[in-house]
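INFO batch 0412 | record 1 of 1 | parsing
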Amino acid sequence: MKLLLIEDDASMQAALQRALGRRGMEVVACTDGRRALAQWSAAQPDVVVLDLSLPGLDGLQVLDQARTQGLKTPVLILTARGTVGDRIIGLNLGADDYLPKPFDLDELEARLRALSRRQPASDPSLDAKSGASPVMVGGLRYEKESGAIYHQGLVLELSPRELALMQALIVKPGHAVSKERLFELVFPGETEVQYEAVEVVVYRLRKKLVHTGVTLVTLRGLGYLLKVDA
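INFO prediction complete | emitting tokens
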């Protein structure tokens, strides 16, 4: 696994590089928020570990600019700023996981490996070769073999968690999927995350579905479903 570590604390950075390196990860480190974006593009990491308190640019600013630029790498925020407000802001800006300091190294490794496994494939040529029939819902096309979702011929820009939620809903258009089931699919094995985190992913996803001909609907007490616009 290639890991980009954006952390300005020298001792923390060195300790994580050693510890994660021993566990088979290739760790590239960056200490400055302004340099982090260029390093992110150059390193092509599997997962980004992002501290929030950075010089140059704050970690949340780095995350916001990265997502605006189309960098879709899964991001785990690792910070001493563990308030609920910071967590919600980070998730709304496109973070995929959040682990407050101090943390357990085994838990960090497990979360990083879970994020790396959740990255979507997006090569449409694989679907053409497989011959699998795509799922068409409104203006969206879901290619089951690659896992990618398209709108007007282009891959819909989704984070790994947004994609996992969409994949669960798009195969059952018009049918509700419970929040509990979506939580299992979007946050597998993450016992520290609350069920309300699904609502954050739904909120972000709704904004990305505007003008696709599909609406993500909440059914109180039942869950969520995809509805084709009239």
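INFO post-check: The chain is about 40% helix and 20% strand.
INFO record closed
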